[in-house]
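Query structure, 437 tokens:
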């Protein structure tokens, strides 16, 4: 074979990635295989011209590698922002959004004309997942373009706008007021009400709305700045909104006027809680406790002479079981399952060593905290307390005062002592309580 023929038949050398042709922008680079193209697409050392070609590679894996590459040029990012595969656009959005807070001053200038424009294009992407990815990445960043944040905050998709509405420090009071005036979706007010800091003007706008759930969330937020006049206006509307009562009673700052107004509308348990606030004047506390005692004293409990015979009989039965050593939680639960209200009350009275009228008072007032406290004093568990709430207070299981995680009592020992003492004092004041059995 001649030397010239051998030269013709010799295989042509495979071009290296740096020597790959760049004349045809949509052509795949001449890499050995897909794995090699993925490596080149992911490497910051790859020539920018080659990355531009790889951004149009037929393989979605290769294009994804370029989308994740922090060294990809603006031209490659622009091409990937219009990629047909949503997954590639999501990866690009995550990269661009993550890179914003790490840019130098010079990079920030280039960002305004390069990556920023690409990122703004992705903010308008038709896929919610792409927009939501950007929102999640920038939701709490303080050094990103404010217009990008405002654009995300106005998004009608909750997955996009809610993280921004809830967390972004770049939304000014004026932005929040504008969003409340023209909300992008039904959850706008309730999301803004959960912010770590709600300015007084914004709180006033939420309070003036008809969104009762958002108002409840606002009242539950201790960082919401609610002016006294705004709080007074809400209290005047709260009679028909029982969900507001507890957060109103627990507001961090409450005037004497507000406390007196709440005392007229809240339930007995909340009135008791209101009367134990440490930030009210002694005069206000005295007034609230008098109001609480009067309310408890005028409820439905019958005089001693009218104590139901069934309860008196049940007390004799419970004392007999106690002498036999059988007055335990198993007996209480069995009795509760049988629906025997009077014997359950008697077991509780004997076990807690209180007069039966004290238990009867808790039952007639549906005073669940008092009932739970008596259960604790009797030495029974929260399992028994739940059963007694259902039977004696006619509560559905979903509405009972539930145990803490792990099954413990949800009230402090001090609180339970207070509840028992209060019930006993009310019964004694009415002349109803006889000596404890």
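Result returned for the query:
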């Amino acid at each position: 074979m001649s030397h010239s023929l051998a030269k013709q038949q010799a295989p042509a050398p495979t071009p290296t990635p740096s020597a790959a042709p760049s004349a045809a922008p949509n052509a795949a680079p001449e890499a050995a295989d897909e794995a090699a193209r993925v490596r080149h697409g992911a490497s910051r050392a790859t020539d920018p011209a080659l990355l531009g070609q790889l951004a149009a590679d037929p393989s979605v894996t290769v294009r994804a590698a370029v989308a994740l590459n922090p060294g990809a040029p603006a031209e490659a990012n622009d091409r990937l922002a219009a990629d047909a595969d949503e997954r590639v656009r999501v990866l690009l959005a995550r990269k661009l959004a993550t890179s914003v807070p790490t840019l130098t001053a010079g990079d920030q200038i280039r960002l305004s004309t390069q990556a920023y424009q690409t990122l703004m294009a992705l903010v308008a992407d038709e896929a919610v997942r792409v927009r939501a990815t950007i929102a999640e990445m920038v939701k709490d960043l303080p050094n990103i373009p404010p217009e990008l944040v405002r654009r995300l905050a106005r998004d009608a998709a909750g997955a996009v706008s809610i993280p921004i509405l809830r967390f972004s420090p770049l939304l000014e009071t004026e932005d929040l007021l504008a969003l409340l005036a023209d909300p992008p979706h039904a959850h706008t007010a309730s999301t803004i009400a959960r912010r770590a800091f709600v300015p007084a003007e914004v709180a006033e706008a939420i309070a003036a709305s008809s969104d009762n759930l958002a108002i409840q969330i606002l009242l539950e937020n201790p960082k919401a700045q609610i002016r006294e006049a705004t709080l007074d206006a809400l209290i005047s509307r709260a009679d028909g909104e029982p969900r507001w009562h507890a957060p109103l009673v627990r507001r961090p700052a409450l005037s004497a006027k507000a406390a007196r107004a709440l005392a007229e509308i809240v339930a007995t348990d909340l009135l008791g809680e209101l009367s134990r606030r440490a930030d009210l004047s002694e005069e206000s506390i005295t007034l609230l406790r008098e109001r609480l005692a009067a309310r408890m004293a005028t409820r439905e409990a019958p005089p001693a002479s009218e104590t139901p015979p069934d309860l008196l009989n049940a007390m004799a039965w419970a004392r007999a079981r106690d002498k036999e050593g059988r007055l335990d939680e198993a007996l209480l639960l069995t009795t509760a399952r049988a629906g025997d209200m009077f014997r359950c009350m008697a077991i509780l009275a004997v076990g807690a060593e209180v007069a039966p009228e004290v238990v009867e008072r808790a039952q007639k007032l549906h005073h669940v905290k008092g009932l739970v406290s008596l259960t604790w004093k009797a030495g029974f568990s929260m399992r028994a307390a739940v059963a007694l709430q259902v039977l004696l207070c006619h509560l559905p299981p979903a509405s009972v005062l539930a145990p803490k995680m792990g099954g413990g009592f949800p009230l402090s020992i001090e609180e339970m002592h207070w509840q028992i003492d209060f019930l006993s004092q009310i019964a004694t004041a009415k002349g109803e309580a006889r000596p404890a059995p």
